[in-house]
Amino acid sequence: MINIAIVEDDERELGQLESCIADYGKEHDERFSVASFKDGLAFLDGYKHEYDIVFMDINMPYESGLGIAKRLRMVDPDVCLIFVTQMAQYAINAYDVNASDYILKPVIYSAFAFRFEKALSAVRAKALAHRYVLIKSQKGVIKVDVTNIYYVEVIRHTVIYHTADGDIEAWESLKNVENQLGELVGTQFVRCNNCFLVNLQHMQKTENDEVVVGKDRLKISRSRRKEFLNAISVYFGAGGGN
What is the pLDDT of residue 141? Predict the structure, then answer.
């Protein structure tokens, strides 16, 4: 399901956007999850990396949509951003914050549908190139590109995601993590022992009873060795290492 946020202080304009999204869903037999916010500060407060598309009004109380967009890009550089404005010249600055498009007010369904279709295509293309997992860490929810995870380690009841951007700790079972990642990327993550779940994309080599992942050496247990080596052969034999 595509998750959408609408940041709009005008009730009538908000209703028009919600109606356009609902009409598009009926026309194309699709479902969308829509959350609305009255101003940009409320939108950014406790922001979660769960939205695929954000519709942002430019003229809003407290802080303009452009100002909010600049702050949004500091925490989420990837979300598809579409400005909604009454004047096209205001939308020129939208490209400074990597906005995907803009829609003129009053919102007309035909114009909306054309731009919305473009946005959906971009979101889906990005989803094919990247798979993201939401990690409920002790500091909050963190959106992580699966390709940036080197391996996942469990210590007692804490799992540690070792990523390109540092370690992230979460209170979860390794089995749940294994199932979640398996649903996203199939057999790309494999256990080398009961404590480590390895991203084969980052595997450098195996050496005796160890596997080198990034800069770390992880123990391959005797009970997992055959299954682990078979998984490596299947993954790279199928072109997964390309």
Answer: 82
